[in-house]
Amino acid sequence: MINNELSKHAVLSQWIKENIENNTFKIGEKIPSENELASRFMFSRQTVRQAIGTLVAEGILVREHGRGTYVSLPGKKASAEKAMRIGVITTYLDDYVFPSIIHGIEEILTDNGYTLSLGITHNRPSDEENCLIQIMQSGVDGLIVEGTKSALPNPNGRLYEQIKEKHLPIVFINGYYRGYNDSYIILDDVKAGEMLTDILIDNGHSLIGGIFKSDDLQGIGRYEGLLKSIKKNNLTVNDSSIIWYTTEDFSYFFEGRMDKIILDRLNGVTGVVCYNDLVAAALVRLLKRNGKSVPEDLSIVSVDNSFLAKHMVCNLTSIVYPGKKIGKKAAQLLLQHINHSQKPEHVILEPYVKIRDSVKKLP
What region, left, alpha or beta, does residue 145 occupy, with left being phi > 0 and alpha being psi -120 to 50 degrees? Predict the structure, then answer.
């Protein structure tokens, strides 16, 4: 039998902890209200409030005014000593642009005595959630994050809000989440799309198509650049020749079953702006399967200037992706925030293009 208020709130605190540990109350989820807990345990509201207050002070729960109490994301408190570790979350690791990003980050962190804790999301929000939780549990002083499906609403918003409450700085790379005033460093994707389209137009192409990724901000930006170039040159966009795909669509789109549909959509265009070199390489293979070649039958331009652009698939005109520079700048920016608490900084890098032989000059 419970005899005093102290034992009552201690029992309730322990019950909440146990339900968090067994995953009944998941991280980021709302726990029962004070009224519900008071009714369930036949405790006073004051006892319940005291139990919850204890867990809030311990960083286990977090109150949100007018909304309720939520299970908090674990991580170091603002007053704690530095962990000398940085969390880095990217969408992929073995993709061609990411080794250079990681190398740039690691170079700066190592020079400053920090280690790196890495998480990979495969561009899936559920994997991003797991990465955030695991990295925060390990204890970090800040995060460098490549947003997952950055063009779409972010389902992990509550976790990011809790990270902010712990005064942990975040620097986003390649994209960012709208509505979050965090630092980011990105390539000017709009300018990149515009430059690539300009190259096609300067070579006599007036019927231009595109293949873009719809769930990342980079794809939206590069498409916007295509539109900008076409409009300023008084040309018309053929909407049916603009093909959109998501992360999950890529292999399905280019494995062969969609060849006829894609060729029909691009019928009549003489040049195509591709989201990146992976898409360009897949399109080149698709054309070869169907007896067509680049640039004789179709001119192609792309982004990333990877090994694919150089000689693996075709001699591709491509925007240079400054992966190591982005990684180094992101790490430098994050360390500045850790040491000096500077205001968010938005860095947009100017693109430049490597001209090769994938564009045919038309009369």
Answer: beta
Q: What is the pLDDT of residue 75?
A: 56
Starting at the edge strand that comes first in sequence, how are the strands of the sheet with 85-90 ordered?
115-120, 85-90, 143-146, 170-173, 183-187, 346-349
d(Cα 363, Cα 359) in Å, to the nearest integer?
Answer: 13
Of 301, 282, 286, the closest CA to residue 356 belongs to: 301
All residues at 6 or more sequence positions from 309 whose CB lies less than 8 Å from its CB, including other chains: 277, 280, 302, 315, 316, 317, 318, 354, 356
Cα–Cα dist 229/237, whole Å? 10
* Model confidence pLDDT, tens digit, residues 106-156: 999 999 999 999 999 999 999 999 999 888 878 899 999 999 999 999 999
Contact 168, 140 (CB under 8 A): yes
Say which DSSP state 129 is in: H
In contact, 99 and 326? CB cutoff 8 Å: no
Positive/negative CA dihedral, 200, 201, 205, 211: positive
Omega cis (within 30) before 295: yes
Bridge pairing between strands 353-354 and 317-320? antiparallel
> Contact 192/217 with Cβ under 8 angstroms?
no
Enumerate domains of the chain plus CATH numbers.
5-71 (1.10.10.10), 85-187+323-349 (3.40.50.2300), 189-322 (3.40.50.2300)
CA–CA separation, 117 vs 124, rounded Å?
A: 19
Integer Cα distance of 3 and 180 in angstroms:
48
- DSSP per position, 247-270: GGGHHHHHSSTTHHHHHHHTTT-S
User: Which pTM does this prediction carry?
Assistant: 0.81
Helix (H, G, I), strand (E, B) or coil at 124: coil
108: left (phi over 0), alpha (psi -120 to 50) or beta: alpha
CA distances from 131 to 29, 69, 99 (A): 17, 23, 19
193, with CB counted inside 10 A (0-12, 13-18, 19+), is buried
- Are 172 and 147 within 8 A, CB to CB? yes
